[in-house]
Design goal:
- This protein is of the alpha+beta class and 225 residues long.
- The chain has helices at 6-12, 36-42, 53-60, 76-84, 87-104, 111-129, 136-139, 212-218, and strands at residues 21-22, 61-63, 70-72, 145-151, 159-165, 176-180, 189-192, 201-207.
- The strands form 2 sheets. The chain has a 6-stranded antiparallel sheet, with helices on one face. Strands 2-3 form a two-stranded antiparallel sheet.
- Helix 4 runs antiparallel to helix 5 (87-104) and helix 5 (87-104) runs antiparallel to helix 6 (111-129).
- The radius of gyration is 18 Å and the shape is globular.
- The chain starts with 5 loop residues before the first helix and ends in a 7-residue tail after the last helix.
Length: 225
């Protein structure tokens, strides 16, 4: 997977992160209408393919028999296994299955922990199927690159962002800056101080490198050496 050099990370970095710096307006964004996850997970495109968050979450949760409440889909693990033949993805889907009952019962011991397990597993599942490689220990070992998923609840996603090391050679800088798109409304922004949206759940998963699409966007950002 592509890596950024120290010089590239230093060029993109800022000591005073703000709301963000848009890419060079002279560069025609190849995916101007893509959603937030299109850039963060795939380096640009959107769509509703089977390996994208809309499809994955639609498979994980379905309406109950009364069509009043979303509940876990007991066929979710089989769908992931049969659709993708990806053992790592199937393992993440199994985490969702193993915690679904406990998470759904707010009064159950361990319900909060089960909700966190599901949130993390769904984020990792989406990342794995997007072609990203998690760092050691299930993406918990820090690297220079991360994906952040923001949500309002354990069964949803609201926003996705790419995190880059912001303090390479500059330990006084904030450790991380965020590169993100606001659901196809605006161009990709770099140098953001925080994940947009102020959602209560932020799931951070570290990855070993970027995708070619990420590099294509970043090389049009202010500060690229």
């Amino acid at each position: 997977m592509p890596q950024l050099t120290d010089a590239q990370l230093q060029g993109l970095a800022s000591a005073n992160l703000g709301a963000g710096t848009e890419l060079n307006p002279a560069w025609p964004d190849p995916y101007p209408d893509a959603p937030c996850w299109g850039f963060a997970l795939f380096g640009g495109p959107g769509g509703h393919a089977a390996n994208t968050p809309p499809s994955i979450y639609d498979q994980a949760w379905v309406y109950d028999a009364e069509e009043e409440e979303f509940v876990y889909n007991p066929g979710f693990v089989a769908w992931v296994r049969d659709t993708f033949a990806n053992p790592a993805a199937t393992a993440q889907a199994q985490v969702v299955a193993d915690n679904a009952v406990t998470a759904a019962n707010d009064a159950a011991p361990g319900s909060a922990m089960a909700k966190r397990a599901i949130t993390g597993a769904l984020a990792r599942l989406c990342m794995t199927l997007a072609g990203l490689t998690l760092s050691n220990n299930n993406g918990t070992t820090p690297t220079r690159y991360s994906i952040v998923m923001a949500s309002d609840g354990y069964r949803t996603w609201e926003h996705w962002a790419l995190g880059l090391a912001n303090n390479v050679g500059a330990p006084g800088n904030a450790a991380v800056q965020y590169v993100q798109r606001d659901a196809g409304v605006n161009p990709v922004n770099t140098r953001s101080a925080q994940v947009w949206g102020h959602h209560p759940i932020l799931t951070t998963v570290y990855i070993t490198g970027l995708l070619d699409g990420h590099i294509e966007y970043l090389r049009h950002a202010a500060g690229w050496p």
